[in-house]
Amino acid sequence: MKVAIIGGGPAGLYAAILLKKQRPQAEITVYERNRADDTFGFGVVFSDATLDNFEKYDPPSYRRITQEFAYWDDIAVHFRGTVHRVGGNGFCGCSRRTLLLILQERARELGVTLKFETDIDDEARFADADLIVLADGINSRFRDKYIGHFQPQVDLRSNKFAWMGSTKPLDAFTFIFQETEWGPFIAHAYQYEAGRSTWIFETDAQTFQRAGLEGLGERESAERMAEIFGWFLDGHPLLINRSMWRNFPMIRSQRWVKDNMVLLGDAKATAHFSIGSGTKLAMEDAIALADAMAEAPSVREALKTYEQGRREEVEKTQHAADVSLVWFEHVDRFWDFDPVQFAFGVMTRAKAITYDNLTLRAPEFVREVDKAFAKHVRAKGFDVDVDKPVAPMFQPLKLREMQVANRAVVSPMCMYSAKEGLPTDFHLVHYGSRAIGGAGLIFTEMTCVGRDARITPGCAGMWNDEQQAAWTRIVDFVHANSAAKICLQLGHAGRKGATKLMWEGMDRPLEAGGWDTISASPLPYFPDSRVPREMDRAAMDHVKQEFVAATLRGEACGFDMLELHCAHGYLLASFISPLTNKRTDEYGGTLENRLRYPLEVFAAMRSAWPARKPMSVRISATDWAAGGITGDDAVEVARAFAEAGVDLVDVSTGQTVRDAQPVYGRMFQTPFSDQVRNEARVATMCVGNITTADQVNTILAAGRADLVALGRPHLVDPSFTMRAAAWYGADIACPPQYLPGKEQIFRNSVRDRQDFEDLKVKAKPKTRAELKAEATKPLAAE
């Protein structure tokens, strides 16, 4: 077999090593345009888990790499005169140049041919090669040469960064957030060998301009950074090596393989430096390629297996990197946070590290986080314990005169089980059981304001006395048997009305028994859906009166809170999104105009609803479609409703148009809640694939939402919140009939949690930093 590898970085060299080990007789050649000892940048960083992989696949290079590493466990966050150190992270740093030399030496030992100062721009010279590995880096000329095939998407991020070095010794992965007269600067720094550390400086484009960095050379830029961070550098110089300011390109390629050619490392995909994964991804690509080559019957099959098997892991890492980089791009959102909450946000920004995870690794730090959260709650007028506070999930919250005992919310979820809009015994059991289960706040499903406002024939309504009586029965039960508050969500289906029950065909039009629909514009949801009638002024007035009438009925029922549904492509949402609002009158065009009618409806409801009771609005913070609502738009939408008197913004996303392309994942909508809360300065509730109490605490403690709504977890476990309270040792209300069960689960949870934590601690291998510290510890005197 003949293999040509274009690019002599970590990806190309490690691929050569593993493929040569696998096929000793193969002719493998690496072509690198630079000299053997050329390298740009300073250090690279790996986690202990990545090093475990290296040890498994090539012990000789692993041993040499680890002999050169600097090890550390702590992450140190410097912010506004404070330092918070969080241990148990297990990181290792190594000189990039040293890493390349080690991999070059190992490749030569195995018989790989290395050709430096050899520029390759045409793969035709390798016509006799069985495999061509394209590992030519972030500016891959072969990816660009076949751009129509590989279809790369390049997202050039807004922040500016420069990669420098220093002689400053560091004993932790260090983040420094520095306020300047021009704006915030961030340093990401870590030691990679004795007397050497990597420093990546980052700032937003506006601060970059104000600081006069545009047009400065490398040395002048280093001098400016040394002025800003001189208090920490303590006289140590900053070193340069192609340390130009640039914007980070997030690269995703639709395809990785063409014929017998395959993209590897940064040539196919990049991940932001804030999670330190570029070199890790590159070398793990090489591992995945070698695994595929070992098992497949042909090169073509191997490359297919490589791409199919590796893509998910790469995209997961990229998603984490995306979330992380957005946090750094918008660090100004959090600049007025309490320093310990800010540090917690740094640690949990990419979702891989959570509240429970940090409790195991850095319990003192999490206790500080809990105390800071409790102090904030106390400042709002609550008499809560700040010395031994409960977890954030179980801290109270007040909206106007409504007080919720904890931050766990049963999300509004359509049950499609009403009869002509009438809630049944199913609804009584559904809402009642979840209230008894301990949730602080219960939302009804979208309750429709008229018969023709329904999504499906099974949707609940609030347009007649019989429905009002049924809802009153539910509200009375919740109030009599739990401490939960209950919120009525009112909505109108608009163009998504007259459709089948969810389990019969979600959003599909009814084949019989349908009704006429209305919307901002006459655009059907599906091509075969009913074409809605564009609302005129008379229709607007009629629907507004329906909302007001339902509001008055809701107050008569005794609901504690009211929510207006302006999301998911339903009637009011269809006015807000430019994808569904094509009007040319005063209700179309600009966002201000598109908001005009939803705000009219809200204002009318707010006037009819008691001033002492809160109101919320559910919005789609993005349409997940080109030309639709964006996160920035959502901030303006939230501000407009806040000015109209809204107390809480329920931040959801999407479901506006059929060709939307949502990016799913754990807590996938939380970043939009974060943006709305911390830019619009309004209380938010987040929702969307939130499944654990750990996630709830993580979101709240990091200041990304004020309430957290969970849907599916509550469907299968009405006592979700009660179980969580037992786990975290937070006492909550329970009806007397159920007290023996509560007492038992609280007793058992003390032991169960201790057993779980002990098991996690025992199962977690010691980090290399811990092992190194033990190995160098002086023996006790005999």
From TrEMBL:
Residues 393-725 form the NADH:flavin oxidoreductase/NADH oxidase N-terminal domain. Residues 2-317 form the FAD-binding domain. It comes from the Bacteria. InterPro entries: Aldolase_TIM, FAD-bd, FAD/NAD-bd_sf, OxRdtase_FMN_N, YqjM-like. Pfam families: FAD_binding_3, Oxidored_FMN. One of its GO terms (molecular function) is FMN binding. This is Bifunctional salicylyl-CoA 5-hydroxylase/oxidoreductase.
